[in-house]
Amino acid sequence: MSRYHTAHLLIEAAGGIPVYHGSAEVGLDRLTAGAPPYRGGIGSGVYVGLQKETALFYGANVYALRTRFGWDRVLALTPETWDPVDGTEGHSVLVGEHVPPFTFKCAGRTWTVGGEWVADVAADPEALGELIDLDDVGPVAKGAGDRAVFLEGVRHRSSVNEEMLVFDEADLEMLGEIHTACSTMSAGTAFPTEYPPAGGTVGGLRVTDDIPNVSSIPASMMEYEILDGVREVPMSHFPGRKARTDRKGSSELAREIEGNGWIDPLIVGIEADAVEKGPYILEGAHRFDALAELGIESFPAIVVLDMYGSMPVADPDS
Fold first, then answer.
1. How far is CA 54 from CA 165, 208, 312, in A?
2. Above 90 in pLDDT, residue 67?
3. pLDDT at residue 156 is higher than 70
4. Of 277, 274, 271, nearest to 220 (Cα)?
5. For 34-48, 219-233, 251-265, 297-311, which range has the lowest pLDDT when averaged over its residues?
6. What is the mean pLDDT of residues 211-225?
7. Which helix (H) or strand (E) holds 251?
8. SS3 assignment, position 282
9. Confidence class for position 178, pLDDT limits 50, 70, 90
10. What DSSP string describes 172-218?
11. Which of 5, 61, 152, 296 could be 291's S-S partner, Cβ–Cβ 3.0 to 4.6 Å?
12. Which residues lie below 8 Å from residue 138, measured CB to CB, with a gap of 6+?
């Protein structure tokens, strides 16, 4: 049983599961339905999490909710409930992750997440059952009469490693707002306007939808605002930061980025009461150094305005 699942079994109230929902909207009057803003969704519906950090991954404003059903109506997929497929070591169900294809039981049938190619590498293709992609998991569960899917343990690169997909918005009861300090930028805020919205490609690299360590924002800042969307930030805006291109990890990461052509957005902070000091890297120091080594002139980032002022956080492992 997963640690998230176990903890919430203990506090499940009135037949419902306490969850959190993240949205770009303040004063939410409707839940944000649809696929989440990253590759590798598990179907269509409303995405929520058992942790506040998960909600922050979907949107800057967090709302407390409760499901109108219990765990008996949820297809829970965790490393404890699925079986890795023998022979697929080194393969992954998601690009950039390290989770091999796995099988699970639903509606009396066996399903294997990974896609048709799994049959070519599996040690026992006959045991695979139905071959599906990750975004087919939701439809499978819904077709079996479940009202949600809980998934844990797939996104190893991200600080968010659990999520719940609720198929029907009516199955969620809004309890209230719990964090709206990080609303999107309002008109008149003193903030650099030279950071345009990032496109699908920045600095010649394709931008992923995965933003690692979003939870570091509330952990580092008491009150903050986030510029809407991923922005393109020039490397030249960090004249006082000397890129450490001599570090082995940064050089290896530079080669990896150069080889696959993808880059995860960084997180950039700016102190509201000291805008003239310029931005700093809140998360993604290794990526910054790797991009500097490659001679990239700009990078994608979430840009955060610290309303109280904070100490820049070193990020030796990103």
1. 12, 18, 23
2. yes
3. no
4. 271
5. 34-48
6. 79
7. helix 248-260
8. strand
9. low
10. EEEEEEEE-TTPBPPTT-------PBP-SEETTEEEPS--TTTTHHH
11. 296
12. 42, 43, 44, 45, 149, 165, 167
| Of 135-144, 195-204, 233-242, highest mean pLDDT | 135-144
Residue 114 C-beta-side C-alpha neighbours within 13 Å: 31
| DSSP designation for 13 | B
DSSP H helix total and E strand total for the chain: 7, 19
Rounded average pLDDT over 283-309:
87
Residue 54 carries which DSSP code? Answer: H
- One-letter amino acid for residue 64 of the chain: A
The single residue listed with the structure tokens 């510029």 is: 227
Which residues have CB under 8 Å from 242's CB, separation 6+? none
Residues paired with 105 in a beta bridge: 110
Residue 278 neighbours by CB distance under 10 Å: 15
* Strand 262-263 versus strand 205-207 pairing type: parallel
Please, what are the domains in the chain? 3-74+148-179 (3.20.170), 82-136 (no CATH), 201-306 (3.90.1530.10)
Structure tokens at 113: 């997440």
Rg (CA), the chain: 21
